[in-house]
Sequence to fold (461 residues):
Amino acid sequence: MRKTVVDYINNKKTHSSTLAFFRVTFGALMFLSVIRFWSKGWINSLYVEPTFHFKYFGFSWVQDFGIYTYLVFVICLVSSLFVTIGYKYRISIICFFLAFTYVELIDKTTYLNHYYLTSCLSFIMCFLPAANYFSIDNLISGQKHEHIPAWTVDTVKFFICIVYFYAGIAKINSDWLIEAQPLSIWLKSKYDLPIIGETLLQQKSIHYLASWFGMLYDVFIPFFLIYYRTRYIAFFFVIVFHVLTKVFFPAIGMFPYIMIFSAVIFFDSKLHILLLEKIKMVLNKTLTFFRIKISNTSKTVYKPIIIKKIIPFILVTFLLIQIVFPFRYFLYPGELFWNEQGYRFSWRVMLIEKRGETTFKVKDSITNNFFYVKNDDFLTPFQIKQMSFQPDFILEYAHYLGEHFKKQGHKNIQIFADSFVALNGRPSQRFIDPNIDLLSKKESFYNKNWILPLNDVIKGL
Fold:
């Protein structure tokens, strides 16, 4: 077994075009994503305007730079462009990974699965020879590497399979399959869509069809993409699925495009060579003015030296973490969809619709005098919405309020939350124990026993 693995790592090769095409599309999509994010004014509204940012546990040291936060996005923009064209690739992809991930760590209010996906893919790409073919670096060096180790491409494939499969098994639960929730809520709200909005999307049967199709698609699509006989039909479904996702949920942003172009990596390198040749034809016409020809490179074989043993170990460790980490929720009692302990970073996509209303009472433990906090004095509307139903947000905000009012001269402070949350169409119920002083609780990996249990059972994985 060990001999087979060593032989696979050292000797099995694949054409460099596959990884090069993935680099080009990934970089281009990231470039467009940053432009889209900037053009919508989200840098200001999400990172510059708020006076308080919700932090991931252990990352409270990550701070915004005020108006200079725009410079971090400039780094993302420039580095993603350089990744696309393969210029100073290693430095560029590392810069993109660090800048993009730093931005995401500034405020967990903005957490989305596809942001996490972007950080993971860019991390993997830091260790891959993705610019050894069809890149500006090739033009500078005068060489291109026709073949690279197969594990470099297989790592990306395996990671994409994890994302799909875990998203699929997460949908095997009673809310998704038996109640068609939360799709039933979301699809009914799309009544303004032409033709189907007021008819098909209001039908419960369509909600069930969409729920079951979504689960089956996520579970089985990676296997159909891997198997060459079903690859083309699988890719057709990839396009249909993600186009429909974009139509029904336009706020999902670039995620559908990322998944569509990521699926191309499963095809044979002949297709990637053909696609890169098409791109080359366009570029050659564009670059004629500069008298640069992309084809003027010699063929060599990629031969990593010292790091060839270290990089596979790093990537295998990363993939093992991705396999195990989503199951950490087993360490906590209660309903995952309700308490969300172990929910993030687990490829649980579009599984819950939660609405909350949370107010805070600041009390003097000696005099018993109290007053209520007006949340919009401290948070933006988007932050208030996210805080209202996520327990770690509620706890962090309570501590922030405690520090704020202590600085104002208040003493003997206690803070209590009056919180009600509705999950996947259920009636609203009390979420946080109103008798618990949240200042007496600290954020940690321990169970948050001050979250009241859900008055229902959701069966599933």
Q: What stands out?
A: The chain has two domains: 12-327, 355-461. DSSP finds 18 helices and seven strands in the chain. The chain has a mean pLDDT of 92.
